[in-house]
Amino acid sequence: MTPVTADRIVEAMNWRYATKIFDKSKKLSEEDRVALLATMRLSPSSYGLQPWKFLVVNDPDTRRTLGSFVPANKSKIEDCSMLVVLARRTSTTVEHVARHAKMLQDARGVSAETLQPFKDMVTQGVAGRSAEAQDIWNSRQVYVALGSAIAAAAMLKIDACPMEGVDRERFDETLGLVDTDFTTTVAIAFGYRDQNDPYASYPRTRRPAAEVLEEL
Length: 216
Ligand SMILES: Cc1cc2nc3c(=O)[nH]c(=O)nc-3n(C[C@H](O)[C@H](O)[C@H](O)COP(=O)(O)O)c2cc1C
Prior knowledge:
Blueprint: H1 6-15, H2 30-41, E1 52-56, H3 60-69, H4 74-79, E2 82-89, H5 94-108, H6 112-127, H7 131-155, E3 159-163, H8 168-174, E4 182-191, H9 209-212
Antiparallel strand pairs: 1-2, 2-4, 3-4
Helix pairs in contact: 2-7, 5-6
Bound molecules: flavin mononucleotide.
């Protein structure tokens, strides 16, 4: 793999911004869609448990319904080229751990015994968390995938807006997540900035490096 240069990464991070107005006439290429979805699916997660589901909402009517629940994000939801709702698993069970261990076993071609210590450790970690702690833990994993997607989009020169402004219950109802193991956590709109988006020209506002970076 050819590494991306350091200056290109900083350039991409400076280029990106949370896009407020998308040009609805511009669409992502299939290749880029696939790359962004792969970035989320390939994201790391605690113990590798992947407690998530990524819902790509293509249907315009469904988008309009979702948009009607959150006026502040309505136009992004409707006009972006690709809308992904990131859902988290609401709980992680011993069965999920067992399935994950089996996946590792098959992928690595090792015996169940080899993976038993890992399986025991993860099972203990899962069992030792309250339902609320598990839910928060799973939510954090989803945010790792979100962050990866934001960075990947910038490097592809694709605009994006992460959106916590979602209505969890109504999104769950609309997306068929009620009575499943998953619930809406956050969403991301991908596409191309409209030339009239004033946010595109706002200066980057970040605390000085000296304030947020510390070398010990
Ligand atoms: C987790 C998360 C949730 C966000 N939710 C929204 C949102 O619902 N609507 C929106 O317009 N921007 C949202 N933003 C964008 C932030 O407001 C924006 O990233 C921040 O102001 C910094 O600006 P910049 O990304 O343009 O540098 C969100 C950002 C993050 C990381």
